[in-house]
Amino acid sequence: MSARLPYFTSLGMFIIDEINFPDYKMDGILGGGGTFAILGSRIILGSRDSDLCSWFVDIGNDCPREILKELRILNTGGIFRFDDTRKCTRGWNGYNQNQFREFKYLTEKKRVTMADLKQYPVMLQSKSFHFVCSPRRCISLIEELHEISEDLGIVVSSPVIAWEPIPDCCSPRNLQETLDILGNIDIFTPNAAEAAMFYGEDEPVDKPNCERIASSFLKYMTKPDSGIVLRCGPLGCVVVTKNNPKPMWFPAYHKGEAKIIDPTGCGNTFVGAFATEFVKSRKNFKLAAVKATIAAGLCLEQHGLPKLTVGDNGEDLWNGEAFDTMLKKYYIENPNLA
């Protein structure tokens, strides 16, 4: 991996997905929270800095060559760990008519821990970290990051922490524990359904209720330049920050359902793109939200990851289109955000 400090490090996993929709299913699809978060980061970094997003890719004895090839094409700073004694982590995703997602593991998962970073000290100095976990594990990871860094004599200079709570922990019984650790978080980013579940409520489907739920967490976020980024599906996302408590809305990239194929991994992609641009732009919530919205839109256009090719001038093309072109289109459609 690169000797340069990563912009983004995910402790999410690489998973091979089976995806079940009401009228059909797909199997052998590249997925996982870590994979999609890295995709988002990779979209923002471009080919020149593609190695500045780091993660662990645990490859079992049943990994299809096509998936391995697709992972390598991204040319990230991933650490590939091959283990012939186990299968890849595999997951089952089920969607109902309302796109509500259920998930379960089909094989034993290979969890990434902070201790894994000991062999790669440059990862411990990442400018941002992505955690997809319970509140208890989140605070444990933050504490381990500082303890391991101190043991190795590495100075950790307040990295950005982006936390996605897992759906299983989003319930009233875990609300207080969640609120108690928000002072350690820079970007708290559940989706609207998950955030509402903390209060025993149904998913909000209108902007006022999304704003109400997002704002309810703000007083507990005490780090400078911290905020809540609530992902609200077709409504887009709403951002509420310590410096600007007035809700800021960012419309979804795709209007309607014409190009929406599969929402799996969309949220993780958003978070990876957001955290990376947040660091690159010196904590510009507005620019990070715009670019993350576009990256998430790309993720929706197919099963698995969007196709990466190279244009005539050497620029990345995602599903045949340059990111800068998508950015210009978004600003044209939303001139108030330009």
From TrEMBL:
Residue ranges constituting the Carbohydrate kinase PfkB domain according to the UniProt record = 172-304
**Coiled-coil stretches:** none
What is the scientific name of the source organism?
Pichia kudriavzevii (Yeast)
Task: Specify the protein name.
Answer: Carbohydrate kinase PfkB domain-containing protein
Q: Signal peptide: which range, if any?
A: none
SUPFAM superfamilies of this UniProt entry?
Ribokinase-like
Output the InterPro entries linked to this UniProt entry. Answer: PfkB_dom (IPR011611), Ribokinase-like (IPR029056)
Superkingdom to which the source organism belongs: Eukaryota
Taxonomic lineage is: Eukaryota, Fungi, Dikarya, Ascomycota, Saccharomycotina
Give the matching Pfam families: PfkB (PF00294)
